[in-house]
């Protein structure tokens, strides 16, 4: 059977003139995971529209498309195209799970939730010529999953070809998060077997890894065993955690020993009232400052994520948040305008209150205001959001943030890292077009080198000041 896997792109990511680096960071891991269920005699190709032109004049037997909210319209267009050519089309992913009835007219089969159970079942049904219209799997396990088909990934097109996930979901239940909608009616957090996770890591070339798990420290026992197994592997890695997990026990020290050099944290808001209305209980009454200090002491850089537009936000939220992040020495920040994704509790509440202003999913990219705001006008919210980015990434603030660290190496890393994220976009554009992003990996690895406590106050330049820093990898929320 000839099978084609497609990750469609949103318009911005396809521009021939300007491709923001964030779309060339990670390969389509979900699709490469699904491809592993094919038989050895099936022919598979994987095309990612974020980094390459799709070839649409073929007629495979099966096309498998992954649908996110911001690529949904493009995904439906591609699906309609292939169906008109007689190809069998399967649609799945987060947006299909949230709005199956919207997706169904564009597909022969749709899939709700994770694909590790349903996709192999579907392949079997298809070969027997009895595929179902709709698949849903209440079974959630990563036990015995086949190795990800990394051979289908064009590594040179990505800055971080070594992305990996060793868990699914998250133990928490924040109202604005995709997680409860995607994992509904089944387990919402589960982990791979430690040996299998270590074997997957071992298969990855080079040193650098990026764990895309929502919460790498979410299961303490699993994470401790994983980090113990990684200790001798000479890896450097990045991943995500919550504030409370960083404060609890000594898991974060174990992570640092295993090679954790930068961590993504969803601080979201500095307002306890906002945390409460978002059901982000795990951040309530947690000492953000203490968590940050602990990370800095371990030489771990922080990518902080913040949401603007929660109902208790006042017009001063932008300045307050940016000032705080700079003072705390947060290396990079991602700001989001609150976005109610369909299927979430936030969407349900806003819909019931008639606060949803548009159902144009292209605008649900966390950069547009799609709902009726309360204490800040929509214009002020959008302006404040833009201001926050400009201000946080201004040279004076990058310098100020860098100087909060007491090791010179950490200061330099912070300065280069944060500077590169916003200040070298044109250079990134050039590297992306030369199709040699992967060649930048050694640079990333050197930037993620260890900052030892004993290195404090010992000047040790790690980079010539003119080198571009990596944009990093803060381009998505937790
Ligand atoms: C990596 C990532 C990115 C990367 C790259 C995406 C890529 N190459 O796949 C980049 C940086 C480009 C990115 C950008 C954005 N992202 Co993003 N991203 C992620 C992240 C962290 C991990 C995705 C991943 O690889 N997961 C691991 C794999 C194994 O799981 P998976 O992809 O879901 O695939 C499984 C299932 O979905 C299913 N499946 C998927 N497709 C299909 C198809 C079929 C037929 C079947 C059977 C099954 C199936 O099977 C797979 C195996 O179980 C997720 C968070 C998350 N945990 O999912 C957010 C996430 C997907 N991003 C999100 C958003 C909003 C964005 C942005 C719009 C903006 C932003 N603020 O970040 C942009 C624009 C995206 C776009 N191009 O349209 C949201 C999506 C919300 C939604 N309802 O769609 C998420 C959930 C983050 C969040 N918490 O809100 N993102
Ligand atoms: S926002 Fe983060 S902590 Fe909250 S449920 Fe989603 S992944 Fe978990």
Automatic annotation (TrEMBL):
Gene3D superfamilies: Cobalamin-binding domain, tm_1862 like domain
GO cellular component: cytosol
Coiled coil: none
Domain B12-binding: from-to ranges: 1-133
Positions of the Radical SAM core domain: 156-375
Cofactor(s) recorded in Swiss-Prot or TrEMBL: [4Fe-4S] cluster
SMART domains from the UniProt entry: Elp3 (SM00729)
InterPro entries in alphabetical order: BchE-like, Cobalamin-bd, Elp3/MiaA/NifB-like_rSAM, Methyltransferase_Class_B, rSAM, rSAM_horseshoe, rSAM_sf
Pfam families: B12-binding, Radical_SAM
GO molecular function terms listed in the Swiss-Prot or TrEMBL record: 4 iron, 4 sulfur cluster binding; catalytic activity; cobalamin binding; metal ion binding
Domain of life (superkingdom): Bacteria
Alphabetical keyword list: Iron, Iron-sulfur, Metal-binding, Methyltransferase, S-adenosyl-L-methionine, Transferase
Name recorded for this polypeptide: B12-binding domain-containing radical SAM protein
Native source organism of the sequence: Adhaeribacter radiodurans
Lineage of the species this protein comes from: Bacteria, Pseudomonadati, Bacteroidota, Cytophagia, Cytophagales
């Amino acid at each position: 059977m000839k099978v084609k896997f497609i990750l469609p792109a949103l318009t911005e990511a396809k521009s021939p003139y300007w491709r923001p680096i964030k779309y060339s960071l990670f390969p389509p891991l979900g699709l490469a995971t699904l491809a592993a269920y094919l038989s050895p005699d099936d022919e598979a190709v994987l095309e990612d529209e974020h980094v390459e032109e799709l070839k649409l004049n073929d007629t495979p037997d099966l096309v498998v498309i992954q649908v996110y909210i911001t690529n949904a319209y493009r995904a439906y267009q591609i699906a309609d195209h292939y169906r008109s050519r007689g190809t069998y089309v399967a649609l799945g992913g987060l947006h299909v799970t949230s709005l199956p009835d919207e997706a169904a007219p564009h597909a022969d089969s749709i899939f709700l939730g994770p694909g590790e159970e349903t996709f192999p079942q579907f392949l079997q049904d298809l070969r027997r010529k009895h595929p179902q219209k709709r698949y849903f799997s209440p079974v959630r396990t990563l036990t015995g999953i086949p190795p990800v088909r990394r051979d289908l990934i064009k590594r040179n097109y990505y800055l971080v070809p070594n992305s990996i996930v060793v868990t699914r979901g998250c133990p928490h239940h924040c109202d604005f998060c995709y997680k409860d909608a995607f994992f509904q009616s089944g387990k919402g957090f589960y982990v791979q077997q430690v040996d299998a996770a270590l074997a997957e890591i071992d298969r990855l070339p080079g040193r650098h890894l990026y764990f895309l798990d929502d919460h790498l420290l979410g299961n303490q026992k699993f994470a401790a065993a994983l980090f113990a197994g990684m200790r001798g592997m000479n890896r450097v890695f990045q991943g995500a955690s919550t504030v409370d997990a960083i404060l609890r026990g000594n898991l974060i020290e174990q992570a640092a020993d295993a090679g954790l050099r930068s961590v993504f944290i969803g601080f979201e808001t500095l307002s306890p009232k906002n945390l409460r209305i978002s059901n982000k209980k795990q951040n309530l009454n947690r000492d953000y400052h203490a968590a940050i200090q602990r990370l800095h002491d371990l030489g771990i850089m922080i990518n902080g994520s913040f949401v603007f537009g929660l109902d208790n936000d006042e017009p001063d939220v932008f300045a307050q948040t940016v000032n705080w992040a700079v003072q705390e020495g947060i290396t990079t920040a991602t700001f989001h305008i609150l976005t109610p994704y369909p299927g979430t509790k936030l969407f349900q509440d806003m819909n019931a209150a008639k606060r949803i202003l548009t159902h144009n999913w292209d605008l649900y990219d966390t950069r547009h205001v799609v709902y009726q705001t309360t204490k800040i006008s929509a214009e002020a919210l959008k302006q404040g959001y833009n201001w926050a980015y400009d201000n946080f990434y201004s040279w004076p603030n990058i310098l100020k943030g860098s100087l909060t660290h007491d090791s010179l190496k950490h200061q330099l890393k912070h300065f280069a890292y944060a500077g590169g994220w916003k200040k070298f976009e044109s250079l990134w554009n050039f590297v992306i077009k030369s199709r040699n992003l992967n060649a930048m990996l050694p640079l990333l690895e050197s930037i993620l080198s260890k900052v030892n406590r004993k290195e404090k106050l010992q000047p040790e330049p790690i980079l010539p000041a003119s080198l571009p820093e990596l944009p990093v990898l803060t381009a998505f929320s937790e």
